[in-house]
Every structure is written in structure tokens, then in C-alpha cells.
Amino acid sequence: MKMAIRVGVGVWKTIMNLNLAMILVHCSFGSVKVQALSTRLPDTEVQALREIATQIGKKDWDFKVDPCLNDTTHTSWATPKSADRPLFNNTLICNCSFPDGSCHVTNIILTGQDLAGVLPPSIAKLPYLTQINFPRNFLSGNIPSEWASTKLEFMSVSVNNLSGPIPAFLGNIITLRYLSLETNMFTGTVPPELGKLVNLQNLIISANNLTGVLPVDLTNLTKLTELRISSNNFTGRIPDFFRSWSQLIKLEIQASGLQGPIPSSLSVLSNLTELRISDLNEGGSVFPNLTNMKSMKRLMLRSCSLSGPITDLTAMTRLNILDLSFNKLEGSFPDLKAIALDPNNLQYLYLTSNLLNGPIPDWIKSKDNRYQIDVSYNNFSKDSQPTTCSAYQNVFKSSSALNNSLSGPCLEKYPCTKVQYSLHINCGGGATTIGGVKFEDDTDLGGGAKFVPVRPNWGTSSTGFFWDTNVTSTDYIANNASILGMENSQLYTNVRLSPLSLTYYANCLADGNYTVKLHFAEIIIRGNRSFFSVGRRIFDVYIQEKLVWKDFDIVKEAPGVDKVVIKVTNAVQVTNKTLEIRFHWSGKGTTASPRRGIYGPLISAISIEPEFKHSKTKKYIVVGVSIGALVLCLLLIFGNLLELVDPRLGSDFSKKEAIRMIKVALLCANPTATLRPIMSEVVSMLEGRTAVEEVVLDPSIHGDEMTRLRAFEEQFDHSTAQGSSASGSHSLIRSSDAPWTGSSVATTSSELYKVYSS
């Protein structure tokens, strides 16, 4: 009995110990359960997130997982960033440091996801939310009125499909420090209520369709450090508000619709590191006083109708980018040598299309490929141009030339070798043949300040670099990423791009009228329900320096993407052998869709055809360097010098060119070697770029050839020249298929150059 009782007591103690252990375990797990519940969001915020997902079109939030868990194994609420998707961001951030141990949503970042819903009204149901970042989606509609009650500090809805007016109630969110509405379709005026946002530091409303004047209420935004209002349709002059915005660090007013002149109060912005003003509609002015802007790094005053000399910029000791292109600036090259002593300064210098004169400084010509320098379209002295062209110094038409013709040391190395009647270029692509017509290769990578002729009959001049993006060597040619279904797709698979100005010039053309066809197809901006489709590419087209299409939009003209539009211009007159086609970006459209740096002209192919009949047999002036051949030819002259002209040409030749050619031939026949012109001089004289000196010949050697030449010239001047070809005569003007028989002396290919004759 005692043993039984004793065993029973032992069992009882064991049972009691087990029960106690279970109670402790239960209490412990109960404590854990309570702790887990305390870290979760309130049910009201969970429900708000469900509503937001529905409204915005977000389908991959996993509500079985705590949004605030921050667990890397559950990525629906916070997806790790990937180099494969640099524009994608999927992040929800909670603050779990509240005294009661609760968590609340503070940040929602949904970028680059092509969300196709609307801006969610239920954002207002997250009382602790301070940041919403929804750029690069396809959200439509307007900003919901419910947002007026939020305490947002950061709000970005850029690069979407939003429309309608900017709501006045945004002025009620006085906690806002950052507001970006860039690259949407907002219309109407800027509401004066935005002046209530006294804490605002960044205001970005570029690339919309805003109109009217900027309200004076914006002067209340005294904490602004960044203001961007580009690519809109505002009216009136640039407002004189700058004294109220003295804290500005970045100011951008490109193609805003506003007029000049630039207010003198701009000079008070001593904190600026970046200033961009371009494409003012009207109202020119002299160069503004910028001496207080000692922190300036990036300065653009482009197409602002600035005149007079460039004022002192030496106080800008950190200046990296200077763009003063497309103005009316005069005087000599600006004194920038002191700034340029720092190798990190003036990496991009654009003085394109001004009236600057005098010499190009030697320190400019000594810069290497770390720098992009463009002085094209100016009046600098010709003898100061670099003797060789480079891929990073553009001197195209940088000096004045007779009849605005092409000239300069670069082009003199590529003389016209034959008359040209047509030209076809596959812009940005390789050589291809369409319907028997060969389109020439154009795969040179281009550059930010590049003019390098590689052929006599055509070339390009490229000006500008893409702002706000990393510069690469492939920025100026784009390749299509999808299969193109249009006819002759090989012309549209590759395109040439430009961030500012791109000139194609056709050289060596016969004078007359031509038809120019420009081929376009938009292969970068897309047409689907995506942020790739909200971009707007707008540019201007000039032919022979005449504006033929203003605000040209390929997608509207085609209409659509990956569709061809061919623009035709007839009766394009050529009078000096050259035809120029220039594509120019005047600041309009978008610059951030689908990514930063997508803007500016795009061209697929160019076709130039004559509108006049011409002989299929090309005519050349053949210059033989072989002295024996020339002397023999000249000594065969016994009668009228008309015998020098190939009778098969009839009257279809230039009398003036014939006289010039004979004079040059006599110069080349001088028995004194040191008095003979070198080949480059011969070419220049034959093309009419250099006057032909009168030749003084030794009568004992040459007889009266010069007398006959002068008589021949007088006959042409009076249009009374007549004559017949004697049997066995030899001509210096010959058709391309006629063999040269004027000399028994062997002549190598290097001794004969075919030079264009009109």
C-alpha cells in the first residue's frame, strides 16, 4: 500500500510538472503571438492598401505576407533592385518605431511598372504616408481631390498619362517639399494656390501643355532650390520673380513659351549650379550679367536672341558645360582660357551659330577627345581653323565663305571628283539597295561636336550631347528592337539621332532644282499602354537654311510608331554645288520617356533627285600632272582654241570653266618646277575657290599660246566664238568613256585627277 501511494505521488508530481511546463510554454507562445500582432499594420491600413492595389492596377502585392515584414524571401512588397531593370522600383516602407509598437506605411514607391489604373484616392486613408513616387507608369485621369487631406512631403507622378488642369487643392498640402508633374498632359494655367506651398523646395512641371502666365503667388515659394518649367505653352515675358527665389540651385526654362528678354534680376541667383534658358519666343537682349554665379557648373543660354559680346565668365571656376549656341553673339572668342586650365572644366563647349569672328584660339585646337567643342556656323578667320578635322572639334562652316559655300582645310582634302546628280543615304544604317537605287552607308557613330568628311560628295555635322544622362559613344544611332513589317524595312531599322542640330550636306551637285525626300519612322517611342508611349518627339527641319517643317512630330504624321512617313520638298535650288538639310531640336516635346535623354531629331533615310534632264555621260576636266602630256597637248594647238573642246559636247559645256582649265594647264606646264602649282592648289583653282594667276611664259619656249588664249577668252565674252574640230585634235574636256591619247608618255593613275566641271 505504501509503495502504491508512493508511486502515485511520483506520478502526480510528474503530471504536475508537465502541466506546469505546458502552461509556461503556452504563456510563452501566447506572448510571441501578441508581439507578432503588435508589429502588423492596423486593419484600416491593410484595407487601404487593398483598395490602392485595385485602383492603381497593382496585381502582385501578396496580402498573405505582412507588408512591413521586410523579408527578402517575400519580395512582393519590396523587390530588390536589378541592373536588368534600372527603371523598376517596387518598395513599400513602414515605420515601426512608434511608442505603442505599431507599424504604419510611410512610403510607397512604384516606378517603371506600366501600372495602367488611376491615381488611387485611397492614398488618403494612410494617415502616416509622407512619400508617393509613381513615375513611369501609364496612369490616367487627374489627381484625386481626396489627396488634399494628406500630409505628403514628396509627390512624384511624372512620366504618366495624366490630364486635365493642375488641381488648386494641391495648395492645401502645405507639408509638400517636392512636387513633380513632369511629362504628362496637364493643361490650363498654373493655379495661384500653389503659392501656399511655402515649404516647397522642388517644383517640376516640365513637358505638359500648360498655358497662361505664371502667377505672382509663386513668389511666396522662397525655399525653392529647383524650378523646371520647360516645354509648355506659357505666355508673356519671363517673370521678374528671381529676387524671391534667391535659394535656387537649378533653374530650367527651355521652350517654355515665355518671351525674352532675360530679366536683369537673374544676377541675384548666386547659388545656381545649373542654369538652362533656351528657345525664347521673342525679345532679345544683351548677354546677362552672371558674375555672381561663382558656383555655376552647367550653363545654357541657347536660342535666346542674345546679341553683342560675351561678358566675363572667368568667375565660374567650376564651369563644366557652356552652351551659348544659336544666338547673335558678336566679337572675338570668349576669354575662357583660365577656366580651361582645370582639366575637369569646359568638357562641353558650344558656340554654334553665332556671329563670332577673329581667330580660333590655339588652346581650343589643342584639346583632346575628352572634350567636345563646337564652333560651327560662325565667322572665325579661315586661317585659324585646325589643319585637320577631329571627331571632337566641329568647325563646319565656322568661317565666312563666298556665296555661303563649303570651304575650309577639312573639305579641301576631299575635293569634288565628279558631278553628282543624286544622292541616297541610309541614315544610321549600312549600305542597301531599294528598287535598283543604292542607299549609301552611314554607320559612323557620330558625336557631340563632330565634323569629319570621309567622302567628297556628302557628309554630316553633328552638334550637341544628351543632357541628364550618361554620355556614350552609341547615343547618336538607334537600332530597332522589334521586327518591322513595313515595306523597305532596311531603311528604318537604324536611325540617326541628334540632341540639338544635325546637318547632312550633299556636295558636288550640278546646279539646278532637286526633289528632296526625307524618310522617317519612330522606332524608339512605343504605341502601347506603357510609359514607353507617353514620349513626344518634336523637332524642326531646314532645307537650304529655310525652315520647311516646324514642330514636326513623326508619330502624328505617320500616324503611329513603326510606321513610315516620307516628306517631300520640290524645287530645292542648288547654285553652289551644295545642298544642306538640317534637323534641329528647339526644346519642345518630352525628354524623359521612356528614359532620360530620349528627345531631338530622328532621321531614317534621305533621297535627293534632280528635276532636270542631264546627260548620262559624265564630263570631267582632266588635269595631267605629267608635264610631257600637257606640253605636247598645248603644242598641238595650231588654230582656233575651240579645238580644245570635245566636239561631242556641242554647246553643252561651261565656257568659263574651259578658260579657267586652260589657264591652269598652262600654269602646270611651266618648265620651272618651283613655279608650278601643287595639286591642292590646282584643285582649288579648278573649283573656282582660288583665283587663277595670269601666266607669263617665255616666248622662246611657248610662242604665242597665251595670245591665242586671250583672244579665245574675248571671243567667249562676246558670245561670238565659232570653230570646228580639226581631224586628230586632242581635248582636255572629255567624256568619261573616251580614252586619253594626248601623250605617248606613260601616265599613272596618281598623275591624273578628275575634277568636277559644271
Tertiary shape: elongated
Helical content class: 10-25%
| Average pLDDT over all residues | 83
How many strands appear in the DSSP assignment? Answer: 42
Please outline what is shown here.
This protein has 758 residues and is α/β, with parallel strands linked by helices. Helices cover 15% and strands 23% of the residues. Strand 28 and strand 29 (458-463) form a beta hairpin.
Task: Walk me through the structure.
This protein is α/β, with parallel strands linked by helices. 15% of the residues lie in helices and 23% in strands. It has eleven helices and 42 strands. The strands form eight sheets. It has a 14-stranded mixed sheet with strand order 1-2-3-5-7-9-11-13-14-16-18-20-22-24, with no helix packed on it. Helix 8 (655-668) packs antiparallel against helix 11. The chain is elongated, with a radius of gyration of 37 Å.
Keywords:
758 residues, alpha/beta, 14-stranded mixed beta sheet, six-stranded antiparallel beta sheet, 15% helix, disordered N terminus
Itemize the secondary structure elements and their pairings.
Layout: H1 2-38, H2 43-56, E1 89-95, E2 104-111, E3 131-133, E4 140-141, E5 154-156, E6 161-165, E7 178-180, E8 185-188, E9 202-204, E10 209-212, E11 226-228, E12 233-234, E13 250-254, E14 274-278, E15 285-286, E16 298-302, E17 306-308, E18 321-323, E19 328-331, H3 337-340, E20 348-350, E21 355-358, H4 362-365, E22 372-374, E23 379-380, E24 393-394, H5 409-412, E25 423-426, E26 432-434, E27 437-439, E28 449-450, E29 458-463, E30 477-479, E31 494-497, E32 501-506, E33 512-520, E34 539-543, E35 546-552, H6 554-557, E36 565-574, E37 579-584, E38 602-603, E39 605-610, E40 619-624, H7 627-635, H8 655-668, H9 679-686, H10 699-702, H11 705-717, E41 733-735, E42 752-756
Parallel strand pairs: 2-3, 3-5, 4-6, 5-7, 6-8, 7-9, 8-10, 9-11, 10-12, 11-13, 13-14, 14-16, 15-17, 16-18, 17-19, 18-20, 19-21, 20-22, 21-23, 22-24
Antiparallel strand pairs: 1-2, 25-39, 26-27, 28-29, 29-32, 30-31, 31-38, 32-37, 33-36, 33-39, 34-35, 34-37, 40-41, 40-42
Helix pairs in contact: 8-11
